[in-house]
Every structure is written in structure tokens, then in C-alpha cells.
Amino acid sequence: MKKNAQGAVNLLCVLPFLFTLGACSNSDSDELKRTVVKITSANTTTDGLNLTVDSCGGAPIALVSELELEVRISVTAEVLNPGNACLDQVDVPLDAPLGNRNIIDLYNDQALPVNISS
After folding, report:
1. Model confidence pLDDT, tens digit, residues 4-25
2. Whole-number mean pLDDT of the chain?
3. 35: number of CA atoms within 13 Å, CB side?
4. Is 35 helix (H, G, I), strand (E, B) or coil?
5. Comparison of pLDDT for 83 and 98, the residue scoring more
6. How many H-runs (helices) and E-runs (strands) does the chain carry?
7. pLDDT at residue 100 above 70?
8. At 117, is the secondary structure helix, strand, or coil?
9. Whether the predicted model's global pTM rises above the 0.85 cut
10. Any bridge partners for residue 49, and if so which?
């Protein structure tokens, strides 16, 4: 009986250590998560838009929905809050010229001013 009780005590002492090791292991939770980031500026190009976004080396990806009166854009990236030291750019081709359509940044659901390139 005494031997079984000692084994249970040893197991109880080891369990917290095993849980700690599991929490420090490399898993999917250690990978960077993609998050919607703010578009800081938009410029027209010959075939769409060039956007500057609030990420730094974050591999930004733009999702675009072109409607009759507006172009709705959501940009996701892996790295956030770079400050002014580093901002990413992403080119967004459009199916139709921007024309008079507004660009809506889905980060905050606000219209963006657009710099028209000549």
C-alpha cells in the first residue's frame, strides 16, 4: 500500500511540470495570426490601386469587393503596429476603373482619400 501511495505522490509532483512543458512547446498557437490592419493611404495605378497599410513585413493580403458606388477593401497581415518606421504596400487590381467610386477601408468602415496618379 505504501508503495502505491508514494507513486501517486510522485505523479502529482510531475504533472505540473508536464503541463508547463506543453505550454512552452511549438504549436499552431505560436504562429503569427492574421489580423485586419488599417489602410494608411491609397494611390491609383494603371490597373487598380496601391495601398500602404499599417503592418511591417506582415505579408499583407487584400480582399476586395467592387460595387457600383464603392470599392470595399479589407487587408489582413501578420505584423501589427509598426509606427512610421515601416509600412507595407500591396497592389490591388480592379476589374473596372475606380472612377467616382469611394474606397471603404473595412478596418474602420471609413471612406479613404485617394491620390489620383496621372
Report:
1. 545 444 434 443 443 333 443 3
2. 79
3. 12
4. strand
5. 98
6. 1, 9
7. yes
8. coil
9. no
10. 44, 92
